[in-house]
Amino acid sequence: MVEGTVAELVYLGGLTQFHVETNAGRLVSHRMDDEVAASLEPGKRVTLTWPAEHAYVLVGAVSSEA
After folding, report:
1. DSSP line for the chain
2. pLDDT class for 65, splitting at 50, 70, 90?
3. Global pTM?
4. Do residues 5 and 44 lie in contact, with contact meaning Cβ atoms separated by under 8 Å?
5. Element (H or E) spanning 30, and its range?
6. Is 23 within the bounds of a domain?
7. Per-residue pLDDT tens over the stretch 20-37
8. Number of independent structural domains in the chain
9. Other residues' Cβ atoms within 10 Å of the Cβ of residue 20
10. The domain containing residue 32 runs over which residues?
């Protein structure tokens, strides 16, 4: 579960892509177009959740600067 603020909405036909600003950075989420998606707008506080088996941890590049 991650909480954040909707920064941008991108409509992709039957899907809506949500860009959400969180303490972990900007996350992108997809949702089928429905009544819930229609009620979201930039600036709205949201909670993102997903099944644990659909989660992946990506490691970023390590900086050589100390």
Report:
1. -EEEEEEEEEEETTEEEEEEEETTEEEEEEEESSHHHHT--TT-EEEE---GGG----PPPPP---
2. low
3. 0.70
4. yes
5. strand 25-32
6. yes
7. 999 989 988 887 777 777
8. 1
9. 23
10. 2-54
